[in-house]
Amino acid sequence: MTEKANQGLEKPLLRVLKGECVQPRPIWLMRQAGRYLPEYRALRKQAGSFLDLCYTPELAAEITLQPIRRYGFDAAILFSDILVLPDALGQTVRFEEGIGPKLDPVTADNLAAVCRPEAVLGGGNEKLEAVYEAIRLIRRELPAETALIGFCGAPWTVATYMVEGGGSKTFERIRRWAAADSAGFAQLIDILVDTTVAHLLGQIAAGVEAVQLFESHAGVLDTVGFARWVLEPARRIVTALHAAAPDVPVIGFPRGGGVQLPRYASETGIDALGLDQSIPLDWIDGLLPKNFPVQGNLDPIYLLDGSAEIARHVEAICEALPERPHIFNLGHGVIKETDPETIQTLVECLRSL
Ligand code: CP3
């Protein structure tokens, strides 16, 4: 097949990730599967717990496909969670209704007992195998033009949940550990680097076509911590993925990374940069190399109260990136009170530009 014919067959989202400007711009949304959808809430009720949903391939596949059927997004993102990795490593992870994740905290003293990399690195982990089975089921059902994105949390972000025992506002425990005993804390980060690579390669072998690294708490570190715990682990992960799976693009999403974003893009080797809603698009556009793809960055708050202003916000984002390969997305996940109709409006707005 000629290169041109081949390109014509490639999925729009994957073309953008390879540096092409595609119109209309492909769109998917972080947390596009989830509690704002009545069909998700119905299935969620059937499963015992959130993790049961993640580890039941038929249910995880069905939830992944729900927003694709409704909106025809250009990508499906695997329905799973960044905390399946600590769960697979042997830490106790629970999701409490209305509260969020709760974990029995990892400390310098219990690290070796609580967190067992061999449970993941050997292959054959029952929980992660269920995730890979979901991917195979999704690929069978997905429309030909829709890409499938896999993901992991980046090591720093996953470690925040492991060490704090859940969400946090101050991140004091983890920042103290990393500052006072960086060699000890590096052991946890090293385990997460290796097992993240293994889990992403497992997802790729099962059929995901791009992967995203969620660094949701990039914004709480100083420049020294950012270099050591965000940049360096991402660089190691991307290097290993590119060596084993050179055709699979990696999207890095260092939420809250602010002025560090140009460094993140150039030093980690990622193929595309996810932008949160705080990033001025003209600023980042002027600093990234020509043809370096970006993704983002509509503030999800605009989807909450009606749809009157959406067209204006969508246009402003597209106009700020006139010649940049761009995947339309939010700056963070869909908020659970969002009306599903508003998302339909968003997709129609973008596609009619
Ligand atoms: O984006 C998608 O649609 C794919 C699935 C997905 C989920 N979580 C499903 C989920 C993805 C990509 C994630 C990533 C994730 N998980 C992140 C990184 C992105 C971000 O939001 O910053 C983080 C930090 C987590 C950890 C996590 N999982 C938290 C803090 C919570 C509780 C908060 C909340 O929104 O409930 C979860 C639970 C979770 N993960 C839900 C879903 C659909 C809600 C579970 C429920 O049904 O009760």
Describe this structure in words.
This protein is an alpha/beta fold. Helix content is 50%, strand content 12%. The strands form two sheets. The protein has a seven-stranded parallel β-sheet with strand order 1-4-5-6-7-8-9. α10 (155-164) packs across α12, α12 (182-206) packs parallel to α13 (223-244) and α13 (223-244) runs parallel beside α14 (261-268). The longest helix has 25 residues, at 182-206. The chain is globular. The protein starts with a helix and ends with a helix. The model is unreliable at 1-5 (pLDDT under 50). Coproporphyrinogen III (CP3) is lined by residues 30-35, 44, 50, 77, 79-83, 95, 100-101, 151, 153, 167, 214, 216, 333.
Summary keywords:
353 residues; alpha/beta; seven-stranded parallel beta sheet; two-stranded antiparallel ribbon; 12% strand; globular; binds coproporphyrinogen III
**What oligomeric state is this?**
single chain
Low-confidence stretches: 1-5
Helices and strands, in order, run as HHHHHEHEEHHHEHHHEHEHEHEHEH
Rg over alpha carbons: 19 Å
For the residues shown, what is the average pLDDT?
96
How much strand content do the residues show? 5-15%
Could you tell me how far the N terminus lies from the C terminus, measured between alpha carbons in angstroms?
A: 32 Å
Main sheet characteristics: 7 strands, parallel
- Counted by DSSP, the helix tally is 17
The percent of residues in helical segments reads 40-55%
Number of strands: 9
- Across the major sheet, the strand order is 1-4-5-6-7-8-9
Tell me which ligands are bound.
coproporphyrinogen III
Shape: globular
Give the helix/strand class: alpha/beta
